[in-house]
Amino acid sequence: MTGMDATMVSSGDDQKNVVPPWLRPIASIKLYDLCKNHSSKECNFYCRVCMVALCKECKKQHDLSEHEIIKAYKIARVASFRMEDLEPFWDIFDICPYNQNGWLVAVIYKKGDGVARSRDQTDAAECESCQYRLKSSGAKYCSLECKVEAVMKITESGSMKNEAKRRVESISEGSGGNVQSLRKRPRKQKNPQRAPFF
Predict the structure, then answer these.
(1) DSSP assignment letter at 46
(2) Tens digit of each residue's pLDDT (9 = 90 or more) over 90-108
(3) Is the N end or the C end of the chain the one with fewer CB atoms within 10 Å?
(4) Residues 95, 20: contact at Cβ < 8 Å?
């Protein structure tokens, strides 16, 4: 592991609001698909630096570059990473953990379809992103993809709010305290009149 590859956000608040660059394309990368170079091998490794899925043969060739590679596991026909492999790099406490052979794993791809289901259990928690019913009551998300999506939305909405705040401040500073209407066209009639009755 090299110094630049293993950088981690230091504070807990920042870590919740920042998605590591290597996790952003996780939804588009298909783990456990057949390798393009070695058609008989499945891609079950993920390079954090190159952001690509690798098969066992590609990993052997890629090991020369000394990049950080994470192994993906299959749990109930779904790709997942071990929680202990992800913890040093990102805050994952609110992702629902699943148990696989004594290891806690986090599912990579969304489990739900975004449609809210009728609740027959009142205490069952749901994923905040895709409304999948969670097994763990302390979790907010069913998968890495859901958490990445939610944090990216929060980050984008926060930056949009900051941009809007800056615009209002610049308008108020430019007009010397007189805030004028942002309407582009004037109203149609200054004094509207009722139509005559015939």
Answers:
(1) E
(2) 888 888 888 888 888 888 8
(3) C
(4) no
